[in-house]
Amino acid sequence: MPDSFELGPIRPPSEAYSLLIRVTKNCPWNRCKFCHIYKGQKFELRPVEEVKQDILAAKAIQDGLKAMAWKSGYGGSVEVVVATVLSNPPNEAYFNIALWLSHGGTSAFLQDANTLIMPTPDLVEVIKFLKETLPSITQVTSYARSKTAAKKKLAELKELREAGLSRLHIGLESGYDPLLKYMDKGVTAAEHIKGGKNVVASGISLCEYVLLGLGGKKMWREHAVETARVLNQIDPEFIRVRTLTVKQGMPLYQEVQGGSFVRAGDEEIVEEEKLLIENLDCHAYFVSDHITNLLQEIEGKLPDDKDKMLAVISRFQSLSPEERHNFRVGRRVGIYNELDDMDNPRQHELAERAIEKLSDDGKQVSDETIYFLMERFI
Ligand code: SF4
After folding, report:
1. What is the pLDDT of residue 80?
2. Were both Cys, which of 147, 157, 225, 249 would link to 36 (CB 3.0–4.6 Å)?
3. pTM of this prediction exceeds 0.85
4. Does residue 108 have its Cβ closer than 6 Å to ligand 1?
5. In angstroms, what is the span from residue 26 Cα to ligand 1's centroid?
């Protein structure tokens, strides 16, 4: 039995239980200042035959685990075998297959950063082969860049949808042109709109990612308002937010160190998110399912749930400064998941103790420490 296949470094949080098939390697742009994932790595299109071998290897591992379940007397049920593999996986590929099977084996995510750049006939061939080889897969998703989606012909995107491409995840990050330029995103707001609309028109589900905090202290207002404007024109099925992190290896790290980019704190980012949501006038499902977000419970279908989402922000903003600080620290050290957790006296006490431990004066943890705590998770 082949015992492995190639895996890329990342997938969206919502694809945690997807089979991961690496179709391209790294990022063809690789210049965004806030991204360190593929820095120093060369972009490559993987040959279709090589990708097919990986799909066959994934099938062989899947079949091996199913055969093991039969031999162990569990019949068609792989749960016990999968749990054993998850607790002590021989390699990452086995871990991925076990996780995928544990959640039904229905979805696949094509890695890496911009699969759409692959020639359409090749990508169609890969998707068809994947679905024929592993027929339990009903959903195939991938990352794409707006620029590439803007260049693809609508007929090509429709062909990909017909082959089985169900959803594209696009890193919009911002809709504000000066900020896109400053961050070297390599795309304009107009290209974001064109690419996004192309995907929507093809019938492929679209998830656009917004990076909260990207405007720093200087451009947060324009970032919020212009991002909402662009999203309103695209009208994607999903909007997902995550919060800026700044790590070594990102070009932005040097600018933060040198003082030319001043990061916004949690409270400013909450104000930015409020402005973004207030200005959204579309039909997307808004999701905050990223560990970096302060208020992960901001979620809902627009426009109906807008007030409910803004109410979460009002609730946070109406807390006393001490309680907001308690929540920020508690959230960043992993004590709280949501505002309701503050009502638990034990959790509240733990957050107070964390403040005493992490601050110089026993009361106020610095923004730098809070950023550091957040960045440990990624
Ligand atoms: S396009 Fe995406 S993967 Fe590539 S550098 Fe920018 S953020 Fe990173």
Report:
1. 85
2. 249
3. yes
4. no
5. 9
**DSSP type of residue 116:** G
Contact 77, 102 (CB under 8 A): no
pLDDT confidence of residue 1: 54
Q: How far apart are CA 254 and CA 326, in angstroms?
A: 30
Parts of the chain with a pLDDT under 50 = none
Alpha helices in the chain (DSSP H): 48-71, 79-87, 92-102, 120-133, 146-151, 154-163, 177-182, 189-202, 216-234, 251-258, 266-279, 306-317, 321-332, 345-358, 367-375
**Does residue 34's CB lie within 6 angstroms of at least one atom of ligand 1?**
no
Distance CA 244, CA 221 (A): 15
Among the atoms of ligand 1, which is closest to the Cα of residue 30? 5
Question: For residue 34, how far is its CA from the centre of ligand 1 (angstroms)?
Answer: 8
Buried b (16+ CB within 10 A) or exposed e, 173-188: bbbbbebbebbebbbb
Select from 33, 35, 174, 207 the residue to mutate for testing ligand 1; criterion: most ligand atoms less than 8 Å from CB.
35
State how far the alpha carbon of 335 is from the alpha carbons of 76, 344, 354, 365, in Å: 40, 11, 9, 15
pLDDT value of position 165: 98
Nearest to 210 by CA among 184, 230, 194: 230
Distance CA 135, CA 287 (A): 29
Q: Which two tokens stand for residue 365?
A: 């943890």
Mutation pick for ligand 1 pocket among 11, 24, 30, 147 (CB with most ligand atoms within 8 Å): 30
Could you tell me the distance, in angstroms and rounded to a whole number, from the CA of residue 251 to the centre of ligand 1? Answer: 12
Calculate ∠ Cα 159-161-164, nearest 5°: 110
- Alpha carbon separation from 110 to 11, 88, 209, 296, 332 (Å, rounded): 9, 25, 17, 26, 31
Which of 24, 31, 32 has most ligand 1 atoms within 8 Å of CB, for mutation? 32
Contact 146, 201 (CB under 8 A): no
Reported residue count of the chain is: 378
pLDDT value, residue 70:
84
Rounded Cα gap, residues 328 and 324, in angstroms = 6
What pLDDT does 77 receive?
79
Average pLDDT across the chain, whole number: 96
